[in-house]
Structures are given as C-alpha cells and as structure tokens.
Amino acid sequence: MKYKSQKVAYWFFALSILLLSLQIIYGFIMAFAHMGYDVLHQITPFNTARAVHTNLLVVWLLSGFMGAAYYIIPEESENELVSVKLAYLQLVTLALVGVVAIIGYHFNYWEGRKFLEIPRPLDWLVVINVLTFLGIILVTLFKGKKQTTTSLVLTMGLVFAALLYLPGMVWFDNQTMDSFFRWWVVHLWVEGVWELIMGGILAFLLIKITGVDREVIEKWLYVIVGLTFISGILGTGHHYYYIGVGKIWLIVGGIFSALEPLAFLAMALFAISMYRKGEKKHPNKIALSWTLGTAIVSFVGAGLLGMAHTLPGVNMYTHGTLVTAMHGHLAFWGAYGMIVLAFISYSMPNLTGRKYYDSNAGLLAFWLSNIGMVGMTVAFGVAGVAQVYLERKVGLDFGDVQKEIQVHFAVLAVCATFFTTGIGFYIYEFIKYGTPNDEALEKIAS
Amino acid sequence: MLSKSQAKIFFLGGTLVTFAIFLGLSWNSLSNEVPKKTHEENLSPQVISGKHIWEKNNCMGCHTIMGEGAYYAPELTKVYERRGESYIKAALMSKTPWAPRGRKMVAYAMSEQEANDVVAFLKWIGEVDLNGFPPKPDLKK
Question: B-chain residues within 8 Å CB-CB of A108?
C-alpha cells in the first residue's frame, strides 16, 4: 500500500466477511425449512431468515465496495483519505445500523418489501452513512493529483447507487406503483450502477495484476459500462411484464434483457484478453484466480442464466418460482461476491506486508466455494424447473409440488456445505494475514 | 480502431438516450396504464390498510404476489378467487401456526377487522390486469 489511510479498507473487509458468514447461517436455516425441518420457526420463521439472508448480502457487498473504494481512491488520486476518523465512524455506524436491522427482523420490525425491508427510520441513518462515505471519497478524489477513468467510473457507480436508494423510500398506496419504483432501486442497482462499481474495481485489479497499459484497460472499461447501461436501463422492463403495466414492456424488456449478457460477455473477454496480453507476472495468483473467476462466473450466472429466465414467454412460467433463486445465487456470487473477494485477496498482502501468495488454503477457498455455488445453482434449477412444470403446467397444488421437490434441497444443503468449507478456508487465510500496519507501507515505498 | 474518447462518448451517449426512453415509457405507464389496469378507483381505505398489514408482517418473505416475493409459500395473486374469503381469514386469524401439509405459517392471530382488510387487499390484487399472469395450467386434465 502506498498511503497510510488505505488501512481503513481492512476493517470494512473484516465486517464484510463477518456478515457473509452470518448470511450463510441464515441460508442453511432456509434450506432446512424447505426440507421440512423448520425447527427454528418460533425464533426465526422463514420470512425473518429470508429478510436477514438477503439484507446481509446487500450489506456485506456494500461494505466490500466501500473498503475497495477506500483502498483504490487514495492510490488512484495520489492523496491520503481526507478524514480517517470519519471513515472509521462511518464503518461503526454502518455496522450498528446493520445489527439493529437484523435484530429488528426477529421482532417484526421491518417494512416487508423484498430486498428493502429496512424500516424507514433506519433508512434515514443509511442515507446519512452513505453521504458521509461519499463525502470522504469525493473530497479525496477531487483534492487529489489525478482523477483517473477507473476512479471516476467507480465513484460514479457509488454516487448513482446512493441516489437510486431514494425511490425505494417513497410510500405508494398502489402495489403496482410500489413494485415499479422498488425495481428502480433493486434492478438499477444490480443490473446497472453496481456494474460500474464492479467494472471500476475490475479495471483497477487488471491494471495492477496484468500490467497492461491503463489507457487500453480504461478504454474498454467505457465500452463495458456503456453496454451495461444501454442494455440494463431498458432491461428493467423484464420486471414490468406482469405487475400491472402495459404490454410494451414485454417487447422492450424482452429485447434489452436479451442484450444484457453482452456487457458481461465483454467483461469476461476483457479480463481474459488483458490477462493474456499482460507481460507482468504478478505473484498474487489467488487474486488473479478470483479476478478472472468473477468475470467468467458473472457472465454465466448474471448474463446467460438471467437471459434464459427473462425471455417473456419463459418468464410467464418461471416468474415467482425457484428458477429466480437459481439465477439470483450464481449472479450475485459471480458478479459481486467474487469481485469483493478478489479485491480482498489482492489487497491483503499489500495492507499487511505479508507476502503470502500461493497457499493451498487460498486455492481450496476459491475452488470449493465455486464448485459449491455451481452445485447449489444446479439444485435450485432442478427444483425450479420441476416446480414450474408441476405447478404452472400440470396445475398441481403448491404444497404438493413442494413435497415432490424437497429432495433437491438436501442436494442444495450438501453443495452449500462445500461452499461454506471454501469460505471457511478464505476466512482462515484472512485471519492468518494479520492486521494492517505501517511497516507494509515502508516496504512497498522502498 | 476505437479511441478512448469515442468509447467515452458511446458510454455517455448510450446512457442518456436509453435513460430518456426509459423515463418516457415509465411516465406513460404510470400516468396512462396503471390507473386503468389496476382499477385505481377501487383502492379503498380498507385495501390500503390491507397493504399496510401485508407489509408490516413481511408476507412477501414467504409468499409471492404478482410473482414477487419469496418461494416458500403459495402465490397469492389469485388466492381470493382460488380459496375464498373464509379460508383466507381462517389462516390469518389462527392462533396456532396454519400448516397445510406440515409447512408452518406464522400464527398472526389477526383481529376480524385486520383479516378483512388483508382480504380486501388480496381481492383488489386479484383484479389487477397482469398481462395474463399467472398462466393457466395447460396440461391440467
């Protein structure tokens, strides 16, 4: 690391990994409930587990993005963070809001809108928290010596993500209006501005790991984020097929959703070709695996599986079934989970000064978690397709169908165990690195 | 070959054009389509109260309506038509977990009035024109 203040990133990563671990626990609670073992019903009924699971996902990813930004922005703008104390305060308040929300979900304190369950008073705290974060990032960036394309794209993604949170805070009496604007937050986040954040982080990693000229990487970054917005903004239409708006969205959503994989394909080709082009052989092989992995798995999970499920004729049957969970798991993992883990793997040796690159535990973490997640995706897929056929085509009752597909959740739990073991190795590695220190700074500077 | 500034124009131009189209289509949907397709005139205080109760209890954490929510419990868009008022009220007012086929629902023990409000909300949802969703099972004998 080149700047002392970059050390802040470490604590955001630690929070991120802690929340990921909790998310996995709640995932298991739900898998067992689906198998018929809803043993925690009294304290954690399914809707609580579900809200905790998805909200932890959002918060651990955001914490990872914030950590990455606190690492990247000083280095790119050649300036120390303007206030390290504020950054730590922001970390603590983020963690506090998260903890209060999660505890609240166990006591019916929530808003009951998918992905946006955080109750309104806490929403305002989130807004203050994110504004503090953006303030630190923006002032650091624009007071710095350079404003590179990579840092601008990353910052733009973060600013838009904050702005798009606001439509989700408006109350509507009409469920259709409610749903319409809820997707402005959820869809335009994950299939829009979060891809800018991912693109910015990916570009930074590729510049550092492959040594390819910044100008080349940043040119393609513009193309990728361009494709993302051109397909993703109107691709929002795939959430509007069946919620009480016009049929025009079937055409617009269908066409532009079919284009959405292009952005991810470009991202995968970009990462692979930069890797092949790069003359520099960076010793951090684990970070390289995660970096190439995120580009490829996001194409499969978010791009291909997403497209297969958003064709209007298919979606009529798969909408609101476990097929969505199939796509959701590999998409979030590939596009956002893996980019955060890639960045943590890249930054840890630099933050701690421990040049500990090629460990078996690190490789096991990568392969076990990925094999586990692919297996989970297949299990969800088989359960989902069987559900669609039996319920939507044959017309069997929901409960009867759920009995038929219970077995797939046992397979899911086995694969989730592989995944969890992988994450366990990742955490072991993270702890082994130790905490960041100023000696790391001097070593690199010399 | 594409230059960096051309790539930047592609990004900014493409974003602006598609976002403008998106805003136009959204404005059209919200002002012209939603009032008709959702029968906005039927949004009575009781339906709105039902929506509040629906959200306060995070019903979407297990069920779906209009295909949105979680996949642990049945789709409820057409539940009013499928099960009728008394069945729905029995599930909502039950003091022990409602558990057809063993899968438990939280025991909400709602009052008669709360249950009526939720039923009114679900009846209203069932009448929204959803472009043919949920599909009719075409292989059903």
Answer: 56-58
